[in-house]
Amino acid sequence: MGASAVVAANGSNVIVVANAGRTVVSCGGGLLSLGASLSSVRGVMADGAGRDVHEARDFGFPVFAKGRIPLRPVACFS
User: Fold this and answer.
1) What are phi and psi of 33, to 5 degrees?
2) Are 56 and 30 a contacting pair, CB within 8 Å?
3) 25, 47 contact by CB (below 8 A)
4) How many whole angstroms separate alpha carbon 38 and alpha carbon 74?
5) pLDDT 10s digits, 23-70
6) What is the pLDDT of residue 77?
């Protein structure tokens, strides 16, 4: 999901993301979901994997995706 889609959307829109069903790369995450939520977007439907699903859930923003990546948060550095 791109920032341009979030900027162009309003409270009567659902953002639909065509990502060819890919689940090894993300097509959107927490910051874009937050921006969409603040723009009163109704939700996101993605034909692919989403990222930061827990963040969207925390602020009650509906995201429907084929999967999520990563499956759980991981540490970047050990």
Assistant:
1) -65, -40
2) yes
3) no
4) 27
5) 888 888 888 899 999 999 999 999 999 888 889 999 899 999 998 887
6) 55
